[in-house]
């Protein structure tokens, strides 16, 4: 009994540590990579060496800021929204396999649970947008709702393709079943999953709900201080989650060129950061999609491709 | 090709990332300013004759000059004592100055110069009026004029000197 409790605590602590460090690393990577892609240097002072502590300094600054709740806001909901936006990602961290046997909690229906939980993140955004009592916030929230409603579909369909190929919904199971030639076989699904994942976490070029040039800052307009920081953290945690899901489902998770069993965690992390880099890269390279373009990409490109991939997966599965 | 721009966009950002950043790390690394930069106006006090041309031409009226006359005793018996202008105050109010450089252009005695020095911000506008001591200090930061381009016309002074030599010969 005691051993089980200790093991459980260890697993939860591991997921928590990953949750608190990986998003910060991705955030720092974004600072630096984006700066260099634009011919700048990015943060250079915080922490002494190439601004490595910039996000820590930002966190300290946010803690010191005044916590403002607008007079007309729905105060309870307004206060709870950041938590609702952040917690789903924390839960997902518990379910993502890092290496063989290295997982917070392996569930037989892990994929299903993960996709369901990621979808809950939307609720936090809707809570924030509605309770702010601000037109810009509300517009951002409605845009977000429309976007997530649309992109949830290709997101789930492309994930279903892999689940079908692997014959299991368990995330470690999918990695076990994965073979390198799946990279080709599941390539369209991987692209669809990645793109709709970007839209799911409202990253540029799918950041219509935030769109700072037209909506002030969308559903984040009224937030200040620590709650704003939590929303930002949720964004970076979202990048890690989408990258990790792409890695686990389409890039073979802990499977690397050698020593899968000893170095599995390393291969997973390398892949996660590589995919995160692509997320940042895409942000720097592409302008924001207009609302109609956004819906067009979803319904006229991603959904048909995802459906075609399902057919392809089914045919190959039956033939083999 | 349709959609080719997407790949091009990614390629450009990636290429930029591999190149050196353009950022000038100013307080840590001094900027390398060209010799004719218009940073601040320095005064070569020894050359000033208090002719007041700069103060009169200044469109902003930002140059303040005070002076008095001193009598220079006659050098030899029977000669007349001469008078000389002595500069008491020469100040430029850089809160008013618009850096047009007319004072430098108009100075017939080469007493005013541009220098690339630019770090003289103050917390109070009134402190931006810099007196002749500070203006003289800035003279040390005036860079030598850049050499002429190859095959350029010789400077006016050099041409005049050469002509004088030819006439002599």
Gist?
The complex is a heterodimer of chains A (320) and B (169). With 320 residues, chain A is mainly α. Chain A contains eleven helices and two strands.
- Going by helix content, strand content and strand pairing, the class of chain A is mainly alpha
Tell me the β content of chain A: under 5%
The CATH level-2 architecture of the domain at 38-74 and 81-142 in chain B is identified as 2-Layer Sandwich
Shape of chain A: globular
Q: Oligomeric state of the chains? A: heterodimer
Structural class of chain B: alpha+beta
Span from first to last CA of chain A?
A: 45 Å
Quick tags:
heterodimer, A: 320 residues, mainly alpha, 2% strand, B: alpha+beta, Alpha-Beta Plaits, two-stranded antiparallel ribbon, 5 helices, elongated
SSE layout and pairing:
The complex is a heterodimer of chains A (320) and B (169).
Chain A: H1 2-37, H2 54-64, H3 75-95, E1 97-99, E2 102-103, H4 110-131, H5 135-166, H6 171-177, H7 182-185, H8 187-200, H9 225-250, H10 260-285, H11 291-319
Antiparallel strand pairs in A: 1-2
Helix pairs in contact in A: 1-3, 1-9, 1-10, 2-9, 3-4, 3-9, 4-5, 5-6, 5-8, 5-11, 8-9, 8-11, 9-10
Chain B: H1 4-18, E1 40-43, H2 53-57, E2 63-72, E3 82-93, H3 102-106, E4 112-115, E5 129-130, H4 132-137, H5 156-168
Antiparallel strand pairs in B: 1-4, 2-3, 3-5
Descriptive notes:
The complex is a heterodimer of chains A (320) and B (169). Chain A is mainly alpha-helical and 320 residues long. Chain A has one domain (2-319). Chain A has helices at residues 2-37, 54-64, 75-95, 110-131, 135-166, 171-177, 182-185, 187-200, 225-250, 260-285, 291-319; strands spanning 97-99, 102-103. In chain A, a hairpin with a 2-residue loop joins strand 1 and strand 2 (102-103). Chain A is globular and about 60 Å long. Chain B has a domain at 38-74 and 81-142: 2-Layer Sandwich (Alpha-Beta Plaits). Chain B has helices at residues 4-18, 53-57, 102-106, 132-137, 156-168; strands spanning 40-43, 63-72, 82-93, 112-115, 129-130. Chain B is elongated and about 95 Å long. The A-B interface holds A 33, 35-41, 44, 281-282, 284-286 and B 6, 9-10, 12-14, 16-17, 19, 21-23, 25.
